[in-house]
Design goal:
This is Glutaredoxin 3. By secondary structure, the chain is α+β, with helices and mostly antiparallel strands. The chain is built from three helices and six strands; from the N terminus they run βββαβαββα. Helices cover 33% and strands 25% of the residues.
């Protein structure tokens, strides 16, 4: 099985088992920040499950003004924007756990 990797720098890959992480991206149609978040997550080898908050009243009430929201392994990690540096740190920390 192929391992996904996260780039610690532009030249040194750091192996991270991204395929075992449960990632949910709460999004909505027409959200450019959501598109950016999805692209960043995918660039780091993650395969987020996308959930449109407008299809569920409870999710819309919970996340209406703060999409994108990224949940990793049951914990909300990002709201509004995914910080690429913090994402790298999180993935590296998870790989060392």
């Amino acid at each position: 099985m192929k391992k996904n990797t996260v780039m610690e720098s532009h030249t040194t890959p750091t192996p991270v088992r991204c395929d075992q992480m449960n990632v949910t991206l709460y999004t909505r149609e027409g959200c450019h920040l959501c598109d950016d978040a999805n692209a960043l997550l995918c660039a780091h080898g993650l395969s987020p499950r996308k959930v449109d908050i407008d299809e569920n009243e409870q999710l819309r009430n919970k996340f209406d003004t703060c999409v994108p929201v990224v949940e990793i392994d049951g914990k909300i990690r990002f709201r509004g924007k995914v910080d690429p540096i913090l994402l790298k740190r999180l993935l590296i920390a998870e790989s060392n756990a």
